[in-house]
Amino acid sequence: MNKKIWLASPHMGGAEQKYVKEAFDTNWIAPLGPNVDAFEKGLAKYNQIDHVAALSAGTAALHLALIMLGIEAGDEVIVSSFTFAASVNPIAYQGAIPILIDSEPNTWNMCPEQLEIAILDRISKGKKPKAIILVHLYGMPAKIDQIMTIASRYKIPVIEDAAEAMGSKFRGKPVGTFGLMGFYSFNGNKIITTSGGGALVSNDEWLISRSRFLATQARECAPHYEHEVIGYNYRMSNICAGIGRGQLEVIDDHINRHREIFNYYKRELSIFKGITFQKEPNADFHSNYWLTCIQVNPEKCGEVTRDQIRIAMEGENIECRPLWKPMHLQPVHCDKPYYGTGVSDHLFENGLCLPSGSNLSDEDLDRVMDVIKNLLSKALRKQAKKIEELVTYDN
Predict the structure, then answer these.
(1) Domains of the chain: residue spans and CATH
(2) What average pLDDT does the chain have?
(3) Which of 53, 133, 158, 329 is most exposed, with minimal Cβ within 10 Å?
(4) 130-174 pLDDT tens trace
(5) In degrees, to the nearest 5, what angle opens at C-alpha 31 toward C-alphas 28 and 32?
(6) What CA–CA distance (Å, rounded) separates 305 from 310?
(7) Strand order in the sheet with 169-170
């Protein structure tokens, strides 16, 4: 059996053990501590943002952001449909209603045109949305300038879901910092990891201070345990933050490698007209290319489908996966209001995420490419032979 090639596995830089050892040596094993403080400061500096709360998960960060905006049962929150369920589930935690917006074909992110259509329609129904959750999918920045203009026009606060987009930029500014709040994920498969974890960021000091308070069970300042509001156990541990400190030291190396991998796939697969990529539309967009994502057009690929490539990869012990199934197609959210033209449906039906971890070797990439090239080349030769036979028969 060939060595397993993962879609995106953790990639350590070396300093992580030093910071974790410091936590053990000083007995800072419980949540919070010097590593958490230093990690928050490092994240703030890297993302050019004033305030950061290191938390147990990106999902926790989004949940707290919704609470900070006063989202309650019956409220409506606009969110990208083409995303992971964690972008939408916290809306349900609050008893609110997700309003799902389709993608546009350039970045695969929220469509500004459909966003404004949805806002106007919800207002006409007497339900002005309380917030917009904008996802930067697979590390690709959304059309943030257009979306922020629309949000400002209707005075709706924006929460940026940059869970997959740490290090991505729009016009030189880090994503996650355009809206009132933003958040990142440090799950094991992300650009950097803390094993599990996330962070909420904002330039509003009160929002982050209040979020930290709620994330530590909303314990009031008293010699005993006093609680006036409901809180949560959402703070990051000092051990996990130690891993994050080490990861911050190598994040630019990780991003550079992800971009190299994207360029390798794009170059090698350029001979196949039926393979297209999620790519930066122009110089305003700078993606971390967390995952390299392709679209497979069977009509131009010798009738080879996305799933045939995926299954062939599995047979060679290579992990890949379909693109996210849109939330408006998911059983748990399919009854929610949806505004779109089917762009994300098409992306899901034909899309595939290729192995993209920064720790992949050149040999690993060549293995992946051999599987794809062999499958497509064989199918196209077979198709060409069939066409030749039909032409000969007709003559």
Answers:
(1) 16-250 (3.40.640.10), 252-394 (3.90.1150.10)
(2) 95
(3) 329
(4) 999 999 999 999 999 999 999 999 999 999 999 999 999 999 999
(5) 75
(6) 9
(7) 173-174, 169-170, 285-286
Is residue 366 within 8 Å of 268, Cβ to Cβ?
no
Which residues, in sequence order, are bridge partners of residue 5?
Answer: 318
Which residue do the tokens 């006093």 mark? 226
**Cβ-proximal residues to 349 (8 Å cutoff; 6+ apart), any chain:** 306
* Structure-token pair, residue 186: 């440090």
pLDDT in tens, 40-93: 999 999 999 999 999 999 999 999 999 999 999 999 999 999 999 999 999 999
On the CB side of 322, CA atoms within 13 Å amount to: 16
Amino acid (1-letter code) at residue 298: P
pTM above 0.85, yes or no: yes
Closest CA to 322 of 350, 299, 344: 350
Contact 234, 56 (CB under 8 A): yes
